[in-house]
Amino acid sequence: MVTHPIMSWLNAWNQLMAGFFLLCSFGLIAAAQVTGCMRFYVLQSLFLACSAALLGMLDNSTDLFMVAGIYIIAKVILIPVLLKRTAREAMIARRELVQVIGVPSSLLIALGLTLVAYYIALPLTAGANSGTRIGLPIGLAAVFIAAYTITVRREALPQMLSLLAIENGAFFAGDAIAPHFPLIGELAAVFDVLMIVLVLGVLSTQVHRSLGNTTVGSLAQLGED
Amino acid sequence: MWIGLTLLLPVVAILITALPVRAAVAGTAAALLAALNVAVAATIAVQLAGHSPVTLVPGWLAIDSFGGIVLLLETFGALTALLFSVGYLKSPHISDRRLKRYLLWLHLFLLALYAIPLLNELALVWLALTLTTLFSVFLVSFERTPAALEAGWKYALLTTLGAALALLGILLLYWALTKAGGSDFTWHGLTRAAGEMPGSIVSLAFLLMLVGFGTKAALIPFHAWLPDAYSQAPFPVCAMLSILESVAIPYVILRLVGTIGAAHGSHAPQWLLVFGLVSAGGAALLILQTREYKRLFAYSTIENTGIILTAGAMASNHLKQAALWQMIAHGFTKPVIFLAAGIMFVLVGKLRISEVRGVLSASWVVGSVVMLAGLALAGAPPFAIFLSELAILKSGMVGSQAWVVMLLAAFMIVSFCAITYHLFRMVLGKAPEDSARDRSVIAIACWWALVVALVPVVVLGWWMPPFLHHLITGGAAALGGTSP
């Protein structure tokens, strides 16, 4: 299908970005401190932006270049700044994060989730171009892994960063399968991400002040009796 | 023009709240604006009845019969919740600044809520739905106690997780649309392209959206956030959350099934049927065993959402009409019960059902109001929910899927018995000595809110205005109902 040497070169780079993108999902599971989670999220967003730009060249879509720019501004620059402002106390607390399931087992589970993602995505991508065949399974895998990370993390900020990583995964798949998705939709999602950071950042600070830590997983006074 | 006004009025309310005025002034102004918005929504509804959709910006802002129903319920719920808030939160412990912040978040929430039936572009509908969560987080955690903060965090995290999954569904749906040669990502564009869309992709997309939006609507088994959020949030906030879950979200889900159900090989209606039945049945059991009356009414919201989705998922046009009728009846009844429960809480100061006794003997007005509202919610005659549930049973018993309706009937009976049982335990009997406060602690605005909220519940039990009947017929047709 793709014959032009530049095209295959772009494709190869896109595959590389996809690999790094997925690696960052694993990093989010393994990171031992909040700042580590944060770095992996920013890195993942950077790879997402690179992939969007490469797909923009492949699909001849100016929209995707704009999308790449939006990702850089919102996710790579604005979100870290916002988080440091709204949730400073929780951010700089230097301590080992607690997890319900240990890191090695979690990484194995994440590997299994990646296989599941491929199993779901492959029948759908039959006959599609190579961007779709890479983007959809990797995006799905990132979504599944991030959703899993939310359930095992116990602290507020890593949970929130995993939530944002789900959105990254959705758009990694989305940019590949729907390169001409209305720009207004992309803007809506980015606006949503910024609102999440703002609201959940402030809320996590309130939790921090009222409890002295942000181990929301151990907040268990509310139950059905 | 009327559509624009609906969105403009909350913005005006936000601006007034931002001005350096006292919270009481801002609250009163907000209640007046909300009353004006009910009039606007009613005007739109009358315009819609029997005529074509009302459009402001073609392809972006337009509303049809189904949307008209939703907007009317949302604005009416907002009016009662705002009126009640003015009285309920007037306390020396709550500073003017906090109260104004509460009003600000509530207006932002309402703005997003009103936008849902008005927007046509699917990505924007998703954004509006997601924003309703984010804007209501601080309403849920308003009390700022550790328990309230925990509830707020759970609520925000789980519903935003749902929204992120739904986003993936939206993207997949757009992919299916482009595969069918379409590019117009509106309800209308999807309906046109539905027949050509690949069923496998549509199925995955719908499943993701059902799980995502279902988490927001607290469908069982995605309801983990609900018991905490409802037991911590102030009563008027509970009323608005109920409107979101039982009106706005079913609107989006039923619309989706109505548009993409036509895709070849998609199982959207069947999945919705299963989800609806599980929620209705599971919630009926949860109502039986709950120990807090706030949660009791929250579970009843899930049960009704389940009933609406189940009836709406079936092909028969009569059942779709009955589903919309149920949505209207429940949407008008829910604020009444939460406001009545709020008044009861002010009087007795307890949340657990086992600790509340003899409300009727402590104050006959409060007791009888709670009794009346509870019976209306349980589905007793002569109130609106009784008629709508009867309509569902009557129109569903004839088709080949009569077993579904029989199951629904069983769930309705279980929840009727459970709600009345809990209700009688609280209202009847002898009040413990010196437990109840004097009735004068209840602010006059709360009573007004309750009186306003009661009007449609009582009226709809006897008489359905013709315009509402037209809206239901038009709405069911828009959902793709087929005549039996």
Structure description:
The complex is a heterodimer of chains A (about 220) and B (about 475). Chain A has 8 helices and no strands. Chain A is mainly alpha-helical and about 220 residues long. Chain A has one domain (about 5-210). By secondary structure, chain B is mostly helical. Chain B has a domain at about 265-484. Chain B has helices at about 1-20, 25-50, 65-90, 95-120, 120-140, 145-180, 185-195, 200-215, 225-230, 235-260, 270-290, 295-315, 315-350, 360, 365-380, 385-395, 400-425, 445-460, 465-480; strands spanning about 55, 60-65. In chain B, helix 6 (about 145-180) packs antiparallel against helix 8 (about 200-215), helix 10 (about 235-260) runs parallel beside helix 12 (about 295-315) and helix 12 (about 295-315) packs antiparallel against helix 17. Chains A and B meet through helix 5, helix 6, helix 7 and helix 8 of A and helix 5, helix 6, helix 8 and helix 9 of B.
Jot down its keywords.
heterodimer, A: 225 residues, mainly alpha, B: 484 residues, two-stranded antiparallel ribbon, 2 strands, 76% helix, globular
Largest beta-sheet details of chain B: 2 strands, antiparallel
CA gyration radius of chain A, whole angstroms: 18 Å
Mean pLDDT of chain B: 91
Decide which structural class fits the backbone of chain B: mainly alpha
Greatest contact between two chains? A-B, 46 and 48 residues
List strands and helices in order, with pairings.
The complex is a heterodimer of chains A (225) and B (484).
Chain A: H1 5-30, H2 34-59, H3 62-86, H4 88-92, H5 103-124, H6 130-152, H7 156-177, H8 183-211
Helix pairs in contact in A: 1-2, 1-6, 2-3, 2-7, 3-8, 5-6, 6-7, 7-8
Chain B: H1 2-18, H2 23-48, E1 54-57, E2 61-63, H3 65-88, H4 96-118, H5 122-140, H6 146-179, H7 187-193, H8 199-216, H9 226-232, H10 235-260, H11 268-289, H12 293-313, H13 317-348, H14 359-362, H15 364-378, H16 384-396, H17 402-427, H18 444-462, H19 466-478
Antiparallel strand pairs in B: 1-2
Helix pairs in contact in B: 1-2, 1-4, 2-3, 2-4, 3-4, 3-10, 3-13, 3-18, 3-19, 4-5, 4-10, 5-6, 5-10, 6-8, 6-9, 7-10, 8-10, 9-12, 10-12, 10-13, 11-12, 11-17, 12-13, 12-17, 13-15, 13-16, 13-18, 13-19, 15-17, 16-17, 16-18
